Fold this sequence. Notes:
The chain has 657 residues and is an alpha+beta fold. It is built from 14 helices and 34 strands. The site of the ligand CCCC/N=C1\SC[C@@H]2[C@H](O)[C@H](O)[C@@H](O)CN12 has 10 residues, from loops.
Amino acid sequence: MAAGVLLFVAVNLACLSVSGNLASGERSFSIDYKNNYFLKDGKPFQYISGSIHYSRIPRYYWKDRLVKMYMAGLNAIQVYVPWNFHEAVQGVHNFTGGQDLEHFLDLANQTGLLVILRPGPYICAEWEMGGLPAWLLQKPNIILRSADADYVEAVSNWLAVLLPKMKPWLYINGGNIITVQVENEYGSYFACDYNYMRHLRTLFHLFLGEDTVLFTTDGNTDKEMTCGTLEGLYATVDFGTDTNITKAFNRQRRFEPRGPLVNSEFYTGWLDHWGDQHAVVDAQKVSRVLGEMLAMGANVNMYMFEGGTNFGYWNGADHDTKFRSVVTSYDYDAPLSEAGDPTEKLLAIRDVIKQVPLIELPPTKVDILITFTLFQVGNISSLLNTLSTVGPVKSQYPLTFEEMKQFYGYMLYRTTLPRDLSEPTPLISPLNGVHDRAYVSVNGVFQGLLERDTMLVINVTGQQGDTVDILVENMGRVNFGSKINDYKGLLSNLILGKDVLTDWKIYPLDIDGAIAGGWPHSDSQKSFPAPQKDPSVGPVFYMGTLQPNGLAWDTFLKLNEWTKGQVWINGVNLGRYWPARGPQLTLYIPGPLLSTTLPNNITVLELEGAPAHLRVLFMDRPQLIVEHSLTSVAERTAIYSVSFFYCILFFFVADTV
Ligand SMILES: CCCC/N=C1\SC[C@@H]2[C@H](O)[C@H](O)[C@@H](O)CN12
């Protein structure tokens, strides 16, 4: 029996012998600084936890994931609360449906899982702006994650709503929350503002009670631990498989000489940015290092255990040497896949934990391969009456998304050519002010794109008075480091040759609202352009309808030879696709999102260029670019032959108009 299990059994046996000094039935959770472990109801307790983000999993799959985590041997889960997920509009709080945090906590409780709650208010997590709501940026020069008065006021108002909801869920009050994290890796942030952390500590104690176990988590360096820790908040560390465990926990000991050893984020995998090679972490290495930590009696949370998906516009970004947007899939090479399928890594981890009988895990999904063809709806310039019902804001110079009070998605900036441009003329944002991608058209003809930090100039031609349309895409706000004040849109003027472009009409686009309202399928009685021989280039909408065919399983949408864009299915925004850049090549579609009785409406916004065939493919497994080619020849042959067979069998010509 692995040493880790021996120790786990020993700790549990110790529980039987320890005569708790508690009234029978009284619940408590605390730190035993004498014996260096947690006490649960007065008995030694070691948590084996996994991170799962309810904001990245459809509500109908929460229980499925939680049960699988329990079946893997965990006794706890760790969960972030993204502030912007619950207060996208200032002062308007949403705790229903996919935001029903208390329902998620209740499902975890029903499943026998304790909870390590991480309410931030900043959470990082490769989530949009690290969970901070973008409307904070409307306060000029706000210093986020500091004692800045505007920021502190907004944080205090938010925590005054959230924390009272959480108090009944504390283990000591009959719930399942055992510990609560304050902020997140604060030692990594430039501000190092102890007054801010003291204010948070005051609020957390005020709303949750003085006897709640509060903690901090920081990267495994002295500098990070120095700025990130505070008296009264138990200091924990995070590190992955390549870190020396003894050195890491010795560093924690320098800040917490007594108390339980805790690795709050043991990285089971890692995140992907568009253009990266897909990050993987060896399963045997993960299970081995986990076993070593458990054998030391350490408390471990595996980050991630179930990653899920950055649906809609919720992905974050990093900005070290340049801006790098996080992909839609948050699979994280985690023990449970993005679609919730157990992996070899989960089985290896379960072998180390071995605290639950080896119940058979549910089988993976059945094979599905469906191909069908989309039809062109039109380009954005021609759809402004549908997509921008509020109409344009006129401004001499460009306004940001935040100034326009639209925080996510896409914005259309329109002006006219100041003079004839018979020769290709450079269009440039001299201050690198395109945040993040701008798709440029003249009189509806796509001229090219500008990309933050990457593509800073394109050539344009046209005649004086021609309409210049610039569609700007928010690719997700930076979620880590000093650049989280990540304003979006055209942050500075555009220069065309020697002319500063002025006199703008700026159109907020409510694409999600239009699609949720049934567009474009509800317009299907109208005539759409007939399929073109040559595919359009530039931002164009396409639509399709998949007739019900019993398909109610999880599938993965592949847009083979498409470039980059966004997909909606039955009104739900699945997120971004970018197969031209990878490594992600498919989009996860949760099975219950598809109707087995009604037509399934697919809408695609292709931003650069669709393939002539306009076909899309529903697959039974994800595809991504790994270090070697996508698949071996044998695998490729198998996929294509199976695909060919199913194409014949399931070829769907989408409903046309
Ligand atoms: C080297 C940069 C470290 C930044 N911290 C990261 S990257 C992946 C994870 C998640 O973002 C997590 O939310 C952070 O707390 C720690 N971490």
